[in-house]
Specification:
about 400 residues; Rossmann fold; Tyrosyl-Transfer RNA Synthetase; Structural Genomics Hypothetical 15.5 Kd Protein In mrcA-pckA Intergenic Region, Chain A; about 45% helix; about 15% strand
Length: about 400
Amino acid sequence: MIIITNLTIKQMVITDEKKIDELLNRSTVEVNIKKDLEKKLLSGKKLRVKFGIDPTGSDLHLGHTVPLRKLAEFQKLGHHVILLFGTFTGKIGDPTGKDALRKPLTDEEIEKNMETYLVQAGKILDMKNVEIVKNGDWLAPLNFTDILQLASSFTASQMMQRDMFKRRVEEGKDINLVEFFYPLMQGYDSVPIKADVEIGGTDQLFNLMAGRKIQEHFSMPAQNIITVPILEGLDGHEKMSKSLNNYVGVLDSASDIFGKLMSIPDDLMQKYFDLLTSFSSEEISEILNQHPRDAKIFLAKTITKELTSENEANEAEENFKKIFSERKKDAIPSDISTIQCEAGKFSILEIAIISKLFSSNSEARRKVLEGAFKINAEKYDDIKKEFSLEAGNEYIFQFGKRNFVKAIIS
């Protein structure tokens, strides 16, 4: 087995209970087996923590960084982090979420993608303290006897428990037998690596659990599993994906990262703060108590700074504010009417009614739900969401493209 390693730093394992609790509970969906892993973390043993990537594309987006950030948490506690590249499995393709077998990649395509992944992973991980391995180094040499032994660890009925296989059978679509081998291969990766922990998205749970089963088949201790949430894209609904064009790329320019993040729905900010920053829950609550636009600017700047630089993040913020101000100035008529409002926290529906832009309360309700109501050029379509009108401030309420009113808060 050939292992490429960049390990240069020896670090003591940290057993701080508060940090371990945050590791196991923040930004996790399931920890299998939680009590067992907690005991190992508190023992001071240096754990071997695995995260696998099939280099099937050249770019990562923020959704891909969620498991990398969990990996970084283990790294900061002094554990042995292993970044595994599926140089063999990448040629086959994971059937997870797919309705058909993916087109295999060439060795050249995989190596090129792997190089760019390493650069992007370095935005999140300390690459000087990461072990880098390729599963082609142990999967390619397996002979047919080895493969039969591996296959004996699972039954066909167990494989058919996968949701995507069930669905394809129900829809009368074919399942290539090669696809049955993907979880076997991903699971087997944990054997030569001797993984104590494996991290992945919730869509990878079957493959991750296969690692436990196969390790036990080879008389090894079963690894613990941590699954992390799937990050919704900029639309706030679908999984972040390049194909849906709702993504923020790790290698995007600072202005693109900042601008894209400023477009996310307000109700997605909590999740983005939780999954994409290291702020404590108390700090996040304090930030989110600000005006939504200010909180979003803080989020956008934080992530932009991490992926680019402080100077680029500052410049992106200044450019965005300039463009936003010019756009708002150009869009708002100079002769709009003015109303006086009392300071306080109101629902969006109450503010829409206060604005007197609508002929009735029912119309206000309907138009807000349709996304036709804005406060300071930002759309609000949740009638129950609360918004603070602060004394001494002015707000522009807008309905459609031509109906405006300026609210002076006392």
